[in-house]
Fold:
Amino acid sequence: MRISLQLVVQGEGGVPVTVTEIGQFVRDGLDVGSLGLHLEEAKSLLGWLQSTMVAAQVAEAVARTSVCPTCGAQLACKGHHHLVFRSAFGRLSIDSPRLYPCRRCQGDAPTFSPVDRCLPERVSVELQYLEVKFAALMSYGLTVNVLQEVLPLDHVLAASSIRRQVSTLGRRLGAAQATNARQQAEVAEGVRPPEIPEPSPVRAVGIDGGYLRRAGHRPSPHCSRTDDRSSGPHRSWSRRS
Ligand SMILES: [Zn+2]
Structure:
């Protein structure tokens, strides 16, 4: 049995569909050793899938930015170079053209590289996460061995680069925490304390009932007590209708 995997890329704006074969597997019979996908095949498949996807994405981005956004003229290319991007699924060499801006709309603006603008960092966030996470649990050398065992990272990782990555991320996190602390202190300084009103010289006491009787007079027959707690501190009277 021969099994092929094809990656179909459907672009936008009438771009023709491209079909790329990224893997082919041969299986004879059925046993434990031949059943399903092998680890090395999976790593190879991930590597091919990553490089094919990245090439398609970069090509579309370059095509989109290679025309003047004002007049639509095609921008001239000064030259090409390759930039290296390290991802969790392999080391990628990406073609990066340098373009002249539109002379008619932008005058003598300097040349630019659209891929450089889109990728200011050359290490994927996921690879940074994996490197730092495993480096926190084991040595840098073991981190390299473990990640290379399950991911297509041959010639991508080195103990020195992981050490440098951990140090860089540590400094970045420290700077971010210092910035947050400074911003919180500035906000706290800008917040006015609540205004507490001055205490009023008038004292008021709320009561739930009472009875006033003019001195020397007994309660009117139109008034009667409504409960028998005459001896206690709580008394309540109601007027008869
Ligand atoms: Zn233009």
